[in-house]
């Protein structure tokens, strides 16, 4: 079992502490929080050892789980990597692309593993259908949330849209060609609602909308590709796969047949995979342990997290252009 320490004991940090404490792949050594008063309160309530000295905690563990506000990601990760520790770091990897690149250089220098917490990669709906997504040419994603002050330290693109950016980059095997975007600040000092159109060199277009001031929640993406339509509901954990094939010579009474202007007939059919329930946060933490123990590439590497951040920042830069 890998000795792990958590940095940051906020809402998400406490979830990580609970899951790591129960995991069969980690031994939870303790945690650090910049707010010592809050840290002691968490320790009293849940019984996890609190380390007032961040260096003492890092020196004691093999893996550092960074669940701090985004602005502190870089400093914590740099310190941990510099001490030769593997790092799991919540998304976004850092606040700037330059910081992320520096972490990649440090990772190579010290030979450690790193994973970014893009938890939607482990969403059971996305996992169930990802292998069926082949060369999508149009993607539409909506991620809407009710207002929550937590997370407003960064624009909605880095808070919410980056989830969909990462998922899309994992299935579109092509460099980004052009980005057009708009964003509006309603309550926060940074944009609370944003839309982006991302064009890839292979012709794929992704249209993404993210809002943290909505009256309802929605986390849904739709992928359109040759002879198939795939809908992924990340919130409800449901999948819909609609495919087309050449119509049979003898049509059945219940066959769904379409005919185009040239007279070509296609049959519509459904091929919905089973969605296995899971705890996505536990899965991402435990697969990281597997990557360390087996010396394999983490499912969401620091390089992939850096690419998602780069595109997210380019979306922000495109506001108002």
UniProtKB/TrEMBL annotation:
Record InterPro entries: Gfo/Idh/MocA-like_OxRdtase_N (IPR000683), Gfo/Idh/MocA_Oxidoreductases (IPR051450), GFO_IDH_MocA-like_dom (IPR055170), NAD(P)-bd_dom_sf (IPR036291)
Coiled coil regions, renumbered to chain: none
Pfam families for the chain: GFO_IDH_MocA (PF01408), GFO_IDH_MocA_C3 (PF22725)
Domain Gfo/Idh/MocA-like oxidoreductase N-terminal: 2-118
Transmembrane segments: none
Superkingdom classification of source: Bacteria
Residues annotated as domain GFO/IDH/MocA-like oxidoreductase: 155-215
PANTHER family in UniProt: BILIVERDIN REDUCTASE A
Protein name: Gfo/Idh/MocA family oxidoreductase
The species this protein was found in: Pricia mediterranea
Lineage, top ranks: Bacteria, Pseudomonadati, Bacteroidota, Flavobacteriia, Flavobacteriales
């Amino acid at each position: 079992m890998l000795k792990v320490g958590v940095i940051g004991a906020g809402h998400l940090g406490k979830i990580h502490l609970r899951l790591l404490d129960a995991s069969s792949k980690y031994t939870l050594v303790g945690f650090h929080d910049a707010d010592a008063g809050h840290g002691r309160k968490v320790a009293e309530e849940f019984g996890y050892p609190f380390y007032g000295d961040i260096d003492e905690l890092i020196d004691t563990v093999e893996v550092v789980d960074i669940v701090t506000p985004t602005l502190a990601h870089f400093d914590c990760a740099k310190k941990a990597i510099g001490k030769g520790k593997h790092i799991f770091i919540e998304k976004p990897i850092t606040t700037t692309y330059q910081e992320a690149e520096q972490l990649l250089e440090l990772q190579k220098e010290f030979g450690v593993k790193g994973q970014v917490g893009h938890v939607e990669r482990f969403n059971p709906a996305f996992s169930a259908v990802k292998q069926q997504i082949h060369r999508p040419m149009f993607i539409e994603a909506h991620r809407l949330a009710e207002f929550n002050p937590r997370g407003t330290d960064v624009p909605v693109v880095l808070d919410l849209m980056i989830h969909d950016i990462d998922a899309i980059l994992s299935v579109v095997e092509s460099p980004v060609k052009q980005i057009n975007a708009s964003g509006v600040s309603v309550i926060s000092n940074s944009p609370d609602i944003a839309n982006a159109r991302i064009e890839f060199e292979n012709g794929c277009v992704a249209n993404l909308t993210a809002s943290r001031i909505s009256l309802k929640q929605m986390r849904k993406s739709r992928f359109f590709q040759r002879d198939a339509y795939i809908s992924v509901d990340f919130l409800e954990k449901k999948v819909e796969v609609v495919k087309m094939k050449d119509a049979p010579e003898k049509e059945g009474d219940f066959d769904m047949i379409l005919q185009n202007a040239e007279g070509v007939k296609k049959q519509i059919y459904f091929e919905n995979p089973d969605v296995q329930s899971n705890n996505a946060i536990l899965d991402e933490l435990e697969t990281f342990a597997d990557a360390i123990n087996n010396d394999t590439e983490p499912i969401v590497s620091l390089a992939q997290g850096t690419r998602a951040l780069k595109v997210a920042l380019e979306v922000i830069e495109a506001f108002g252009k």
